[in-house]
């Protein structure tokens, strides 16, 4: 049953919502029609009960009028019913009336002998101060309502109880019930129609601000991402408008970052491409093979710098767009080891001592590809700015307040006054420009953005040896780890 309920809930959520106006009208009018139907039935029942009481009172009056003509003579019950009275009882403009007067022993004194007798389970009516019972029966193939009155009779010789029954067909009651029903239905239909009209008008008025909001968005230029005034809509819709404003603000930021990226990329790539074009023109004019080889070597170096810059720009763009993939537990020491293996050749070529101090497993929450890019940028920067024969120390350790990644080099370092500026794209510290003039100024900017994506903090300080730079990345602790 639980699976069925969950499946039904998913199908309901997946169903298209359709028109808000139509849904409001359905949810308002459908219960209203049901309540009106129940009210109509209740009113009809109440009206019929009132009509039955009125007809029963009239029937009792006829029974009492007949009982006044019943008396005891010489020990026998007699009914002095003149012809005019009999005619009035036997014929009625709204239906047929039947009567019967029973004697002390149940014999028929006057009237219709085959009039249905009183059932044994019919209780006495508590509505009238008389020994009267009302019941339904069938007589001559027609349904009838009968009042049975016990009338005391007596003379000088004896006393007894006579039974006076007066029945009438239900034609008059049926006619009255039809009139009551039709009148009730007509009034309720008019009420439903009036309420439906008012609800329709009210829904249109209430939804008018939403329609105006829709029209405003439809008529806006594509470049207009300004906020919408929340006062234009109802209080319940303002959180939605606030969310839309937040989304448009993020879109503005995204568009601005894209424009900035395009401007920066075009500016930064223009220089190496110009140099390549110049070098190629020199190579075309050069006839000396040795000079041409030197120019080709310069072209290869410029190409490497351009490729490195393009890769850094693409990485920066990917990070600014939130990276790829979902967050999961990543074994950070394994990522650092893989980066160390990938960059081992440049370290060997410069005779740099590349060392790692880390446990086998230590989990952080993040995206494995982005973390690999973060560590690669840190290690690549350290190797580029460390002179030959220097050292680069990598460390991963658990701390009380999280997981720490450290990268220390023995390069020129960064002056304290410039440590905040080097995280800006394309900014390069004076010492680093001297050590590596071909740098891009994007490495630490990429590191900061990836760290922000993972909720980590990046800080710069002097290396433990006093010479060089130490970059510390502090990751939030992982509550539970599935790594083994």
From TrEMBL:
What are the EC numbers? 2.7.13.3
> What catalytic activity does the UniProt entry give for this protein?
ATP + protein L-histidine = ADP + protein N-phospho-L-histidine
Task: Report the locations given in the UniProt record.
Answer: Membrane
What positions does the domain Histidine kinase occupy? Answer: 264-479
Q: What keywords sit in the KW lines?
A: Kinase, Membrane, Phosphoprotein, Transferase, Transmembrane, Transmembrane helix
The primary site where this protein sits is membrane
What is this protein's name?
Answer: histidine kinase
Q: Please report the organism this UniProt entry assigns to the protein.
A: Massilia solisilvae
């Amino acid at each position: 049953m639980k699976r069925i309920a969950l499946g039904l809930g998913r199908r309901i959520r997946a169903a298209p919502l359709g028109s808000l106006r139509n849904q409001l009208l359905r949810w308002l009018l459908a219960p209203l029609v049901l309540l009106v139907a129940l009210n109509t039935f209740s009113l009809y029942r109440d009206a019929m009960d009132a009509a039955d009481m009125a007809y029963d009172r009239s029937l009792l009056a006829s029974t009492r009028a007949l009982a006044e003509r019943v008396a005891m003579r010489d020990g026998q019950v007699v009914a002095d019913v003149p012809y005019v009275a009999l005619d009035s009882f036997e014929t009625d403009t709204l239906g047929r009336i039947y009567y019967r007067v029973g004697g002390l022993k149940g014999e028929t004194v006057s009237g219709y002998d085959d009039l249905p007798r009183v059932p044994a389970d019919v209780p006495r009516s508590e509505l009238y101060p008389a020994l009267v019972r009302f019941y339904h029966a069938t007589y001559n193939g027609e349904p009838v309502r009968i009042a049975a009155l016990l009338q005391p009779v007596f003379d000088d010789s004896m006393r007894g109880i006579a039974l006076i029954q007066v029945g009438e067909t239900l034609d008059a009651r049926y006619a009255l019930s039809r009139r009551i029903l039709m009148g009730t239905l007509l009034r309720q239909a008019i009420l439903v129609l009036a309420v439906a009209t008012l609800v329709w008008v009210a829904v249109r008025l209430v939804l008018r601000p939403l329609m105006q909001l829709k029209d405003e968005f439809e008529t806006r230029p594509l470049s207009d991402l300004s906020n919408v005034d929340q006062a234009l809509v109802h209080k319940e819709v303002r959180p939605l408008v606030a969310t839309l404003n937040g989304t448009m603000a993020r879109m503005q930021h995204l568009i601005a970052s894209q424009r900035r990226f395009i401007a920066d990329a075009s500016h930064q790539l223009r220089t190496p491409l110009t140099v390549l074009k110049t070098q190629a023109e020199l190579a075309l004019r050069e006839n000396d093979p040795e000079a041409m080889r030197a120019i080709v070597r310069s072209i290869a170096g410029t190409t490497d710098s351009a490729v490195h810059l393009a890769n850094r720009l693409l990485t920066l763009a990917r990070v600014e767009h939130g990276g790829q993939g979902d967050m999961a537990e990543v074994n950070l020491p394994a990522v650092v080891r893989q980066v160390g293996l990938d960059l081992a050749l440049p370290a060997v070529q410069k005779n740099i001592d590349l060392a790692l101090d880390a446990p086998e497993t230590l989990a952080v929450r993040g995206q494995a590809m982005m973390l690999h890019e973060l560590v690669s940028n840190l290690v690549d920067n350290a190797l580029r700015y460390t002179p030959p024969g220097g050292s680069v120390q990598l460390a991963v350790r658990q701390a009380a307040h999280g997981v720490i990644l450290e990268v220390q080099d023995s390069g020129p370092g960064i002056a304290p006054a410039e440590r905040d500026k080097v995280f800006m794209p394309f900014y390069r510290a004076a010492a680093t420009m001297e050590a590596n003039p071909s740098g891009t100024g994007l490495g630490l900017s990429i590191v900061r953005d990836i760290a922000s994506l993972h909720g980590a903090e990046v800080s710069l300080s002097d290396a433990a040896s006093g010479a060089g730079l130490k970059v510390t990345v502090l990751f939030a602790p992982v509550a539970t780890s599935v790594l083994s």
